[in-house]
Amino acid sequence: MTGATTPLGVQSRTFLLGGDLPVRRLGFGTMQLTGPGHWGHPADMDQAKASLRRAVDLGVNHLDTADAYGPEVAEHLIRKALHPYPDRLVIATKGGLTRQGPNRWAPVGPPEYLRQCVEMSLRRLALDRIDLYYLHRVDPHVPYADQLGALADLQREGKIRHLGLSKVTVEQIEQAASVITVAAVQNRLHLASADDPALAHCERGGIAYVPYAPLAAGGLLRPGGSLDVLARTRGTTPARLALAFLLRRSPVTLPIPGSGSIAHVEENYANAADLPPDAVQAVRRVFCPSG
User: Fold this and answer.
1) Which among 24, 58, 82, 284 has the fewest CB atoms less than 10 Å away?
2) Full-model pTM
3) Which residues contact 200 (CB under 8 A, 6 or more apart)?
4) Strand-by-strand arrangement of the 160-166 sheet
5) pLDDT tens, residue by residue, 11-43
6) What is each CA distance from 50 to 1, 18, 174, in whole angstroms?
7) Is 39 a member of any domain?
C-alpha cells in the first residue's frame, strides 16, 4: 500500500513498559534494516532511514534494535535517521550476542563484555541512558547470575532504565527475577507458531511480551497462502491480520514488525488493532482450531 494511511495514533491502546514508559503496542523492529543474512549495510541506506522516519511519523514510539544487527548497523541507522529523538521515543537495544557472518550468531556473556556492549550502544545511539536493554542471549558458559548482575550494575549506574530478556524459558525468567526486575521478554511468536509458555507467565506478572518475527520473517505473507486468502475475503492484508491477532492475543503483547520498505511500513501500521474482532476470530479458526 503506497497511498495515505491513518496514523497509528487512532490505536489508543498503549502499554506501560516497566511501569513508567507508555508505548504504543505496535513497535518497530530494525533487524530487517541490515544486509542479507542480517549482515552489513542495507542495499539502500536512504530507504532504510526513510522507513524508520515513516514508522515514527505513523505514531510508533517503541523501536527495537541490537548491537548484533549488522553488527552495529541498525543502531547507527537509528541515530542518523532520528537524532535528535522525538519526545517519548523508547529505544530498546540488546547485547551479549555476537556476529561472525551472515546468519551466524554466538552468545558471549562475560560481565566485562556486557559492560562494553552497553557503553558502545550508548555511544552509537547518542544516548545517556538506554530505556530498555535486553540480555540478547543467555551464554551457557557464563554463570547466569553474573550476566544479570553486570546489567543490574549498569542499571544502578543510571546507564539502563529497564532490563529485559530475549529467547528465554519460564524457568530462566523466574531465575532472573531474583537478580533483576524483568520489564520485558522478547521471544519468537507468530500466529502459526507453537504457543510460548512465557507469554502466559508474562501476562500474570504484567511483563511486556515482545514477539519478534511476528510475520514469520515474511513467511506468513506469501501470495496464495492461507492468510493471504483469508485477508482477501476480509478486504485487508495478511500483515494486518497477523498483527491484529497478536495484539488481541494478550494485553501484554508488543509486536515489533520491521521492514526497509516504506510501502510495507505503511501497510503494517495501518490500523491493525482496529480490525473487527470477527476478522481476528476467523484467523484463529484457521490457525488455532483447538485454541
Assistant:
1) 284
2) 0.92
3) none
4) 28-29, 62-64, 90-95, 130-135, 160-166, 182-188, 208-212
5) 447 999 999 999 999 999 999 999 999 999 999
6) 16, 29, 40
7) yes
Peptide bond before 257: cis, by omega within 30 degrees of 0? no
**Distance, CA of 14 to CA of 23 (rounded, Å):** 5
Buried b (16+ CB within 10 A) or exposed e, 44-72: ebeebbbbbebbbbbebbbbbbbbbbbbb
Tell me the residue range of the domain where 69 lies. 19-215+250-260
Report the relative pairing of strands 90-95 and 160-166 from DSSP bridges: unpaired
Residue 188 cell numbers, joined: 519468537
> What CATH number is given to the structural domain containing 190?
3.20.20.100
Q: Give the model confidence (pLDDT) of 79-130 as tens digits.
A: 999 999 999 999 999 999 999 999 999 999 999 999 999 999 999 999 999 9
Q: How far is residue 30 from each of residues 55, 91, 220, measured CA to CA in Å?
A: 11, 11, 19
The closest alpha carbon to 38, from 73, 76, 80, belongs to 73
The amino acid present at 288, given as its one-letter code, is C
Whether 69 is a known active-site residue: answer yes
